[in-house]
């Protein structure tokens, strides 16, 4: 819903480590005024009485797979950005392993063009590195592109960067933030072959975290960290899944000064290997969901600031694709609509504060990627925001799932908190399970 002015009254604002009561006035797409009390400036201001609700900055998800172009039977930028808005995610950074892959400037800009016409949320894309596209990598404008994505395991197409000399050359040559998927490919191949000898293609799903093991993760991530230290590259390690890897990261440096950072995803905080018995391939991800001990260690590291960002790694597949034997069922699942409600559930369980959720899902992605004027409820910043009712239970079901794939690993889960309003650049995009179909997403820019 396009409106020039919105006044949110009587709301609890969660921002920069504080929660305070007040009013928020939005005009022409930005936070114009934040104060104890604000009066409507004219009769055409949309007034929302948010008594008892909480206003959060819009969530920034630094890792999604929206499947366009080429894999649009699973998802599109339009369908998944719409689902993201329902989940309070107002900005996303999408990955390059589409068909074709975003490994040339031309293909990258084609994705930006699609998003400019179809995205409900703000957007950027990562450029994909390969063993043979360093020349293209060096053409990327760091002010216009979120980061360089390297698959150091579990890639699609030709995106596995497995030549050590080329990898070091990439790390040494670019000023771009380098985001990496770390799993050692040879370890996984050897483990898979061993289990296939016993089970053929129908390997029991509970062996997934044994095949994609702690060893596979640590070997790859430790090599990436060592290379970043050697070359001085800016490294961001995606979706940590093991306790062992946490020793590679520090909380002794402020985020803005860190050269090596790490992310944790919702599914690695929520599920454990005990859930394979009921969820099966629906929770088959790469890296794998591992033990409850790993999950608990990741949560502790998040609270202690060894882990900097919470993301989704939203990666939908159709139900038919997922309903396959182990070796044929793809890894990944949809999460953007349910990530914030899941974190708010942890708040209700006294595991994390609202302020910490906002730090990890809103402020820190903006700091880490140097995103301009987003990630905060702050005067002069783009008005991306989420209104939350912490006491409005709802249950995830087929009728309210917004993903194109039509399923969720959270199906049947009752969340205590509900996202009641999502604002994109000052425009109301979503309200109580209702979508406003105008698209207000903008291309993210970076202060580099």
UniProtKB/TrEMBL annotation:
The keyword Aminoacyl-tRNA synthetase does not apply. The keyword Lipid biosynthesis does not apply. GO terms for cellular component: cytoplasm. It comes from the Bacteria. GO terms for biological process: purine nucleobase catabolic process. One of its GO terms (molecular function) is metal ion binding. Residues 54-428 form the Amidohydrolase-related domain. Its cofactor is Zn(2+). Keywords: Hydrolase, Metal-binding. It holds the Pfam family Amidohydro_1. Belongs to the metallo-dependent hydrolases superfamily. DHOase family. Class I DHOase subfamily. NCBIfam families: PRK09236.1, pyrC_multi. Catalyzes the reversible cyclization of carbamoyl aspartate to dihydroorotate. This is Dihydroorotase.
């Amino acid at each position: 819903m396009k409106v020039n002015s919105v006044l949110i009254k009587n709301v609890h604002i969660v921002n920069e480590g504080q929660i305070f009561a007040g009013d928020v006035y939005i005009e022409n797409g930005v936070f114009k005024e934040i104060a104890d009390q604000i009066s409507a400036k004219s009769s055409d201001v949309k007034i929302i009485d948010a008594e008892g609700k909480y206003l959060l900055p819009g969530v920034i998800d630094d890792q999604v797979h929206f499947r366009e172009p080429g894999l649009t039977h699973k998802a599109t930028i339009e369908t998944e950005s719409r689902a993201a808005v329902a989940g309070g995610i107002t900005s996303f950074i999408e990955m390059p392993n589409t068909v074709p892959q975003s490994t040339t400037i031309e293909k990258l800009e084609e994705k930006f063009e699609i998003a400019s016409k179809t995205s409900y949320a703000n957007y950027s894309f990562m450029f994909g590195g390969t063993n043979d596209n360093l020349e293209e990598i060096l053409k990327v404008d760091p002010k216009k592109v979120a980061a360089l994505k390297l698959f150091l395991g579990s890639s699609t197409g030709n995106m596995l960067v497995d030549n050590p000399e080329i990898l070091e050359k990439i790390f040494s040559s670019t000023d771009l933030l380098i985001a990496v998927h770390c799993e050692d490919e040879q370890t996984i191949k050897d483990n898979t072959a061993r289990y296939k000898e016993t089970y053929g293609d129908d390997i029991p799903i509970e062996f997934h975290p044994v095949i994609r093991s702690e060893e596979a993760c640590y070997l790859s991530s430790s090599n990436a960290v060592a290379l970043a230290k050697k070359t001085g590259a800016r490294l961001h390690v995606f979706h940590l899944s093991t306790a062992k890897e946490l020793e590679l990261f520090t909380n002794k440096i402020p985020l803005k000064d860190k050269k090596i950072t790490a992310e944790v995803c919702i599914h690695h905080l929520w599920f454990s290997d005990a859930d394979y018995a009921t969820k099966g391939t629906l929770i088959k991800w790469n890296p794998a969901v591992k033990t409850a001990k790993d999950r608990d260690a990741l949560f502790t590291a998040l609270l202690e600031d060894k882990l900097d960002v919470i993301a989704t790694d939203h990666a939908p597949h159709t139900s038919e694709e997922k309903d396959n034997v182990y070796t044929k069922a793809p890894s990944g699942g949809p999460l953007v609509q349910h990530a914030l409600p899941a974190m708010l559930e942890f708040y209700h369980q006294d595991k994390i504060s609202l302020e910490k959720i906002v730090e990890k899902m809103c402020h820190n992605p903006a700091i880490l990627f140097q995103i301009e004027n987003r990630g905060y409820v702050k005067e002069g910043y783009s008005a991306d925001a989420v209104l939350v009712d912490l006491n409005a239970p709802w249950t995830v079901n087929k009728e309210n799932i917004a993903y194109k794939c039509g399923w969720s690993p959270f199906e049947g889960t009752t969340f205590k908190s509900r996202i009641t309003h999502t604002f994109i650049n000052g425009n109301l995009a979503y309200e109580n399970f209702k979508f406003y179909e105008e698209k207000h997403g903008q291309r993210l820019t970076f202060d580099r």
